[in-house]
Write a structure and sequence with these properties.
The protein contains 16 helices and 2 strands. It is mainly alpha-helical and 369 residues long. Helix 12 runs antiparallel to helix 15.
Length: 369
């Protein structure tokens, strides 16, 4: 045992038995930040994880069960008496929290500068984001959106008797037609139109693989909101930069989901495992696809008229709306400013696209009916 550890043990043993409760109260007060006499179960879960979970390699779910057990009245919070009962009476919790108490004494009783319960430079919360994955409620929103896209495509295929259903009745009604911009629903409903089987299949695979995991952490309404914001941004941006291009497909929404993952990595960096590797993977995918789209559009002698502007706008929308909308497990002051900045930027960009369409009709080709 090192000299430092001996000093720590002696300091801990020197605390009078009748003063132990006051030491637990001091620890409780450190995590009762708003001084309302209670701390949330999530906060206690993090305390247990920092104090004992990593040393003994206790699974996060077990720590969560221990934390929830302290909440006798099941109100989502524990008061000091519940906290004290957990720390001193529950055998499992008592053995796990001994290390926490030792750390507390070492960093707060022994004079060593500013007191803290974490080692400098070491992130003690990695993996908290992964602990949030849940199938309750079921992640069904992106599944439902995908089913609607399949049903509309199938209807047109049956009507046209070909998988190239772009001229089917549903496609004709929903596609973004630059000459019929007054039919405002087209700025969103083009996401239901697909050129062919491959186009539909690729979009379905990507949006389910990316959307369902987001729903499991952030809930479906947030993911759908991001998806639709990307679709709308894609059509508005295309109407301004490529006023003669038709749009079909959910690529704007798909790209919004891609950058929504980037957004959640940014705002939950300290709570995620391998955040840097995830960020690099998404950055590579985005860069590769954008590069391919631009190359095919301008350097290959094929008139494919890919609306890469919709991809780019959808990606920007997903990042901006994602930072503002997605759950942030540990909100820091600078992140609040970032969230509001992203919200304002998205509103300004979207509003500019809408106003351009309304105020400058001469910029566009004459509408055809």
């Amino acid at each position: 045992m090192s000299v430092q550890q001996q000093q720590q043990q002696q300091q801990f043993q020197s605390i009078p038995l009748d003063n132990v409760e006051s030491q637990w109260e001091m620890l409780f007060n450190r995590f009762d930040r708003n001084r309302d006499g209670k701390i949330s179960i999530n906060e206690l879960h993090h305390v247990l994880k920092q104090g004992a979970g990593e040393q003994y390699n206790i699974p996060p779910k077990v720590l969560a069960i221990i934390a929830n057990k302290a909440d006798h009245n099941q109100d989502g919070y524990i008061n000091f008496r519940e906290f004290l009962h957990l720390m001193e009476e529950e055998p499992i919790a008592k053995s796990l929290t001994t290390n926490l108490f030792n750390k507390y004494v070492h960093y707060t009783i022994v004079p060593r500068g500013p007191p803290r319960l974490r080692t400098a430079g070491v992130d003690r919360t990695d993996g908290d984001y992964e602990d949030e994955y849940s199938c309750n409620p079921p992640a069904l929103c992106m599944v439902i959106v995908s089913l609607i896209e399949v049903l509309i495509f199938t209807w047109d295929v049956l009507k046209m008797k070909t998988t190239e259903s772009i001229h089917g009745p549903m496609a004709s009604m929903f596609i973004y037609n630059p000459h019929r911009r007054r039919e405002a629903w087209r700025f969103l409903t083009y996401m239901f139109v697909h050129v062919g089987q491959t186009h539909l299949t690729v979009n379905l695979i990507v949006q389910l693989l990316l959307g369902v995991p987001l729903e499991m952490v952030h809930r479906g309404w947030r993911v759908v909101l991001i998806y639709l914001s990307g679709v709308l941004a894609g059509s508005l941006a295309t109407s301004v930069t490529d006023p003669s291009v038709y749009l079909a497909g959910a690529s704007g929404g798909v790209y919004a989901l891609i950058t929504a993952h980037v957004a959640t990595i940014i705002i939950n960096w300290s709570e995620m495992e391998c955040a840097i590797y995830q960020l690099l993977i998404f950055a590579f995918l985005i860069t590769f696809d954008f590069g391919s789209s631009i190359y095919n559009r301008y350097f290959v002698a094929v008139d494919n008229q890919i609306g890469y502007t919709a991809h780019l706008a959808g990606a920007i929308a997903g990042l901006l709306v994602g930072v503002y909308t997605l759950r942030n497990l540990n909100v820091r002051p600078w992140e609040k400013k970032l969230c509001w900045s992203c919200f304002v930027i998205y509103i300004l960009l979207t509003g500019s696209g809408v106003m351009w369409n309304v105020l400058f009709p001469e910029y566009f080709s004459k509408e055809q009916y």
